[in-house]
TrEMBL record:
InterPro entries: AB_hydrolase_1, AB_hydrolase_fold, AB_hydrolase_sf. The keyword Hydrolase applies. GO terms for molecular function: hydrolase activity. It holds the Pfam family Abhydrolase_1. Keywords: Hydrolase, Signal. Residues 1-25 form the signal peptide. It comes from the Bacteria. This is Alpha/beta fold hydrolase. Residues 72-324 form the AB hydrolase-1 domain.
């Protein structure tokens, strides 16, 4: 039984409460700072390493196919996602013969939450490269969603010979929010915002942005996954690392280097996505210019030398969850047909 099915009963109850007119408490499971208590769909392993003078553990799933095709895919999650949210994608890729590595980045989910860490996309890419090296993986296809898309671009720029193909699923960073006028928020500001995180707030944001106004009980486990860390004993550390990560995302654009990507690249874009970091803090005239994914996707396709664009007109920020059949059909067809980086 999948994780989604295991939690379906909870999902139905939470959905009914969320969209009734009755005000309910933010009840639900409480998880530890490294998501202790939340089950992943496959065995979770830990990569222990030293970074910036600290001993850290990077959680990951390593799923082996029954009939290997000799290729490896690395799945890079987004800011409000975890490796577990790739559950259906892992299954589809493994069934097609791919070995699948799905890590939780440092600062996220089941991985270490350092009290002080210089977060950068370069550092997260190095951590990921070290994980793959520890597993004997030299070359892989990198698939990044949301913030994971920014990380996948940085990884491909740093390790071009090790990146066979690049897939960007509704990546953020297709525009430079700071340059467009989104005001800077300090880490302390982000921290204060993160401390207010609740299941209801997560659910309403995800319904509007990730799922284009739709909601299904199968989405609820991912709400509780995030909210549970903010109900648990490590809430302050989770919120602090989250604040540091938001600052990283805002201050480290990758858009200006798209032209340097040389590997075959696939853009999978839900056209109803409107994600933009800090948009709610921007003045109305700036906010109106942000997060127009159909235009952003076409601009990215023009900027990336060997890019293919596939759009999903009715989907939002998480097409792999909202319409997994359409998403995986497009993904698997392109992976099989597109040339590899040589």
């Amino acid at each position: 039984m999948t994780l989604i099915r295991k939690l379906s009963a909870l999902a139905a109850v939470c959905c009914a409460a969320a969209f009734s007119h009755t005000v309910v408490a933010d009840d639900g499971p409480a998880y530890g700072p490294e998501l202790e208590g939340f089950s992943y769909p496959h065995t979770v392993q830990e990569f222990a390493f030293t970074s910036q003078g600290q001993s850290l553990q990077m959680a990951y799933m390593d799923v082996q196919p029954t009939k290997p095709n000799g290729r490896t895919v690395v799945l890079l999650h987004g800011k409000n996602f975890c490796a577990a949210t790739w559950e259906q994608t892992i299954g589809e890729l493994a069934s097609a013969g791919y070995r699948v590595i799905a890590p939780d980045q440092i600062g996220f989910c089941k991985s270490s939450k350092p009290a002080a860490y210089q977060f950068s996309f370069q550092q997260l890419a190095r951590n990921t490269h070290a994980l793959l090296a520890s597993l004997g993986i030299v070359r892989a296809t990198m698939i990044g969603h949301s913030t994971g898309g920014m990380l996948a671009v940085r990884y491909a720029l740093m390790y071009p010979q090790d990146t066979e193909q690049l897939v960007l699923a509704d990546p953020i960073g297709l525009e430079d929010w700071k340059a467009l006028g989104v005001p800077s928020l300090s880490v302390d500001d982000w921290y204060a915002r993160e401390l207010k995180t609740s299941a209801d707030g997560i659910r309403r944001y995800e319904q509007a942005t990730y799922y284009a106004g739709q909601w299904r009980p199968s989405y609820e486990p991912w709400v509780q996954m995030l909210a549970g860390m903010y109900r648990g004993p490590g809430k302050k550390q989770v919120a602090w690392d989250s604040a540091l990560l938001y600052d990283m995302i805002y201050t480290q654009p990758v858009i200006y280097e798209f032209g340097q990507l040389r590997m075959p690249t696939l853009l999978l874009i839900g056209d109803k996505d409107t994600t933009a970091i800090g948009k709610d803090a921007a003045p109305p005239e700036v906010r109106a210019k942000l997060g127009h994914y159909p235009e952003l996707a076409k601009a990215a396709q023009r900027a990336i030398p060997h890019a293919t664009l596939i759009e999903f007109p009715e989907l939002g920020h998480a097409p792999q969850i909202q319409d997994p059949q359409a998403f995986h059909k497009a993904l698997l067809a392109w992976l099989a047909a597109a040339p590899e980086n040589r």
